[in-house]
Structures are given as C-alpha cells and as structure tokens.
Write a structure and sequence with these properties.
Length: 241
C-alpha cells in the first residue's frame, strides 16, 4: 500500500525557474542579448552551460550562487505539503524529475531541510570545475521525439518503476505533479488509476485540456492545483481511503 509522488521542480516545488533565477548573480542582473538569443528549442542544457561560463567569466563564485539560489521562494503551501509528506514517508515514495540541475536542487532542498523527503532526484548532472565554473550535462540520451534532447521524463519514470518492480515494489497509485510542456510525455504514460496534477494556468494544464478537446484525452484522472494546499487535501483523502 504505497503511493508514488512524482514532482517536477521549477514552477512546481519552487515558484520560479531556478535556471533563470541564477541570472540575479550576473552583472546588472541580466544577460547580454547575444547570449540570451543563443537559445535553441530543445537545447536548454547547452544554453545554460553558456550562461554558467558567462557567470564564471564575470567572477561569480560558488558561494554567491548558493546564497542567491537559496532565496528562491517555494510555491504557496509547498513547505506544508513537503512537511506532511515527510511525516508520512511510510505511505509515500517521492521523486523529483526535473530539467534543472543537481547542484541547484541540492542547495535548495538542503537549505530548507527537505532533502530527506525525496527518495531520488533525476535531473541534469552539474558540478563545479577545478577553475570554479559551474558545468552541466544532459541527463541522458533518448529517442522520444516529443521531449527536449537532454531529458524524456517518461523514460525516467518508466525506468524507475521497472527498477522498483525488480525490488518487488509496485505502487497503488502514481500522482504526477507538474506544470510544464515536458511533463505531458510522462502524464500520457500514466494509467487509469493514476492521477495527473497540473498547475492551474500553466502549459501542462493547457496541453491536457487540448488533448481532451481533440477527443484523445489522457488515460489517468486529472486534478488541477493552484496552491500546494490543494495537493495536500487530495493526499489526505488518498491515505484515508
């Protein structure tokens, strides 16, 4: 009797995009136009690599980055929700699947003492080089045409579930909590008994309702949330059933 909670990170756990939040460290808190315009769709990780080089070239050090990142606000109600999950870990396994990076997520979760809530974090590997520059790599390679080059969240979820099955663990229900376009691929993998929780007014909600309009709705149930309190209310009902 265990539930799997799958969280996105940016605009879901935190109320901002961690990758754009780091720009607060840049001179005048902005990036030069040439760098900003160098982004190509589906190649966000490479773009962030260039941003980190720019920050490093401008003398931005690890401690300054860390100070900045730990000021990022959590989404409304999220602190209470993560506290509740932490108190009920015997019922919930909890993972993050995110297009951010290991360094940012680690800093943010540890600063707020939430790292123990999550069993695993799947995100782009990042590290500081010997010269003090932050570097980031693609999470994996995949063949999914729908997803950005560096990360297919469906593949991550499927591999995680397969690994858990090998250990003899299957879940009563999967609850997927996210906001972005890249959360649609794993949501379409969910079964009838599972639930997708898209954030109200964000891309994922719009894409799910578009599918319903085109008469090809997702198989799982859909429950929209605007604050993490909505998610907590649902989980409380779930564990009472």
């Amino acid at each position: 009797m265990k539930f799997l909670l799958v969280f996105d990170f940016d605009h879901t756990i935190v109320d901002e995009n961690s990758d754009t939040w780091i720009v607060k460290c840049a001179p005048e808190k902005k990036l030069p136009n040439g760098l900003r315009n160098s982004y190509r769709p589906g190649h966000w990780t490479e773009y962030m690599g260039r941003v980190f080089v720019y920050l490093g070239d401008n003398g931005v050090k690890e401690d300054e980055m860390k100070r900045t990142m730990t000021t990022i606000p959590f989404t409304t109600g999220m602190v209470d929700l993560l506290g509740f999950i932490g108190e009920n870990k015997e019922l919930f396994d909890c993972i993050i699947v995110s297009d951010s990076n290991t360094v940012f997520i680690d800093w943010i979760l540890k600063a707020a003492d939430f790292h123990k809530v999550f069993d695993e974090v799947f995100t782009n590997p990042a590290a500081f080089s010997s010269t003090g520059y932050l570097t980031v790599q693609n999470f994996h390679a995949h063949h999914c045409a729908k997803c950005p080059k560096n990360l297919c969240k469906r593949k991550v979820l499927k591999e995680f579930l397969d690994k858990q099955l090998e250990r003899g663990l299957s879940y009563t229900q999967i609850v997927y909590i996210g906001d972005g376009g890249n959360d649609l691929c794993p949501v379409m993998f969910l079964k009838k008994n599972d639930i997708a929780m898209p954030r109200q007014g964000y891309t994922l909600e719009k894409k799910i309702s578009q599918l319903a309009q085109n008469l090809s709705p997702v198989e799982c149930s859909v429950l929209v949330w605007s604050s993490a309190t909505d998610i907590m209310s649902y989980l409380k009902v779930l564990i009472k059933e």
